[in-house]
Amino acid sequence: MKLSDSREIRAEPAIVWTAILNPEVLKACIPGCQSMTGSVAEGYEAVVKQKVGPVSATFTGLVQLSDIVEGRSLRIVGEGKGGVAGFAKGSADVRLEPDEGGTRLSYDVEASVGGKLAQLGSRIIDGFAKKMADEFFTRFQEAVEGPDEEEAAASAAEDAPKKGWFKRLVGG
After folding, report:
1. In this structure, how many other beta carbons lie within 10 angstroms of the beta carbon of residue 123?
2. Rounded-to-integer distance, Cα 43 and Cα 64, Å
3. Count of CB atoms situated within 10 Å of the CB of 163
4. Which of 22, 45, 20, 19 has its CA nearest to residue 34?
5. What are the b/e assignments for 47-83, b being 16+ CB within 10 Å?
6. Is 114 exposed, middle or buried (0-12, 13-18, 19+ CB in 10 A)?
7. What would you report as the CA-atom Rg of the chain, rounded to the nearest whole angstrom?
8. What is the rounded distance in angstroms from the CA atom of residue 48 to the CA atom of residue 27?
9. Going edge to edge, which strands form the sheet with 55-69?
10. 94 contacts 74 by C-beta, under 8 angstroms
11. CB atoms near residue 4 (< 10 Å)
12. Which of 41, 42, 75, 78 has CB atoms 3.0–4.6 Å from 67's, for a disulfide?
């Protein structure tokens, strides 16, 4: 499965770059991520729980950042084993470009599965992979740029986790 897309993030490229290298941001953005330990240099060990169609599994695996061009691009590669459910592999080539009003984040994602998961059929797997990529980059965008003014007013009344927490943390 291959997928390409881009997002306009209302934050300077330096803030977006810092966020994508931050393990707390990555953990918060990976759907179903229960834990993540490690570093950019050595990679991260992650535990992710997901349900794909009728198959529910907890995947343990590695997330590595490579092909790093400071402030411009990197490759995120992940591989997880889900016991009898099988395995999942994926990668995302991420590029950042300054854009009017912030940063254009473009990505090309590739994903594959094996074992019991592969028996679900390409339609279910492709839909799931697209949903996971969309959710990851949506969460990333929200963590970096924060809520719209309308959302900020609405969420001020709620005890929901605040969007844009990373941008506020770095003073953006």
Report:
1. 9
2. 4
3. 20
4. 45
5. ebebebeebebebebebbbeeeeeeebbebbbebbbe
6. middle
7. 16
8. 10
9. 2-9, 102-114, 87-99, 73-81, 55-69, 43-52, 33-39
10. yes
11. 11
12. 75
10 in Cβ contact with 19 (< 8 Å): no
Two tokens, residue 169: 């943390």
What tokens does 74 get? 């990197």
The CA distances from residue 93 to 6, 124, 125, in Å, are 11, 23, 20
pTM of the full structure: 0.79
Q: Decide: 146 and 164 in contact? Cβ < 8 Å.
A: yes
Cβ–Cβ < 8 Å for 50, 32: yes
- Return the residue matching tokens 């090309």: 108
Amino acid in the structure at residue 80? G
DSSP conformational letter for 155: H
| pLDDT tens figures, 67-124 | 999 999 999 998 999 888 888 888 999 999 999 989 999 999 998 888 888 888 788 8
How far CA 45 is from CA of 27, 61, 109, 134, in Å, comes to 11, 6, 20, 22
CA 148 – CA 101 distance, rounded (Å): 14
Enumerate the β-bridge partners of residue 50. Answer: 57
